[in-house]
Amino acid sequence: MPTSPDDRFRFFDTLVRAEIRLWGAVDAAVSEATGTNLGLITALRTIDDLDGAARVQEVADDIGITVGAASKIVDRLERAGLAERVPNPADRRSSLLRMTKPGRKTLADGLRAARQELGRRTDTITQAQLDATTTALAALADAFSTDD
Question: Domain holding 91: CATH number?
Fold first, then answer.
């Protein structure tokens, strides 16, 4: 059964407000613990996940932002001493991203703060509700990623 335009706006408003509130809370916790922000922690997670094989393109793809925006984030990580660009041995035209020792500490501290805040914010919902919501949001993310 098709939904009404008002139902779609109610869905949109609820989803966006929930995301903004949760991001803001987790960002504040990360900032207090690390002096940096959740966006930089997210980029550090990507670099860590790819274990020395990350390029700016992978950061952009993983976070869902443009290459230009990802490049600016990597510039900020470099200026803060949290990551560095190193020559790509397979392609002289590009570089790979590597976390520094301070970057590893910042990532660990940021993830700890984020996990604590996420736990605090989600402790009123059951595991089944969390799993169902995560599954539904993943399906929505897939559906929204098409460029039809």
Answer: 1.10.10.10
Distances (CA, A) of 103 to 38, 89, 100, 106: 13, 22, 5, 5
55-67 per-position pLDDT tens digit: 999 999 999 899 9
Please report whether residue 4 resides in a domain: no
Task: Compute CA 74 distance to the chain's CA centroid, rounded to the nearest angstrom.
Answer: 14
pLDDT digits (tens, 9 = 90+) for 24-77: 999 999 999 999 999 999 999 999 999 878 999 999 999 989 999 999 999 999
Q: Which domain holds residue 85?
A: 19-141
- In a domain? residue 5: no
CB crowding 12-22: b at 16 or more within 10 Å, else e: eeeeeeeeeee
Provide the whole-model pTM.
0.87
